[in-house]
Amino acid sequence: MLYSYRTRQDARARIAPTLAAVGLWALSGNACRPGAKSDTLTDPHAGFDVSLGTTISRYLQGAVFSVPFDANLSHPDTQKFVAMYRDQFGEAPDIFAAYAYDAYRLLALAIKEGVSSRDAMLAFLVSGHASVGTASAAGGVGANRGPLRETQLVELSGSTFVLIPESRGRDASP
User: Which of 5, 64, 168, 172 is buried deepest, with most CB atoms within 10 A?
Assistant: First the structure.
């Protein structure tokens, strides 16, 4: 069954209060409600939605979200892409648009550099020579043929999503 982005967002908005109703809150340690269990809730979905910070934040304090792309990032490559996308389509881009943009730019650079075969393309992409800024957190293609960098992790604090330092993200096992 296929779900739209909106359906997944709505599902999360219903799941968090349901977990709270059975005593599971995303509050950390001593901030947990009396008689409730505290646990780190994680949301690894590519459809991160910043509105969760205002709609159901009371249930998700301390929850960790994997955010491969956020149109609100202040990174220059991200903001350039967001501005171009908004100019053309009249709305903010999502992760799928960012990945498509990144892939296009990486492939265009390879072709510009004279890459003309599938094997040469793979070698070029994983070589680290592709110096193209990306709109997403990926940063390009790594030697393992996956994203050069892992997604960024953010934690909900109040109604704001706060970037988790890379060292803490590696040590944490949410």
Answer: 64
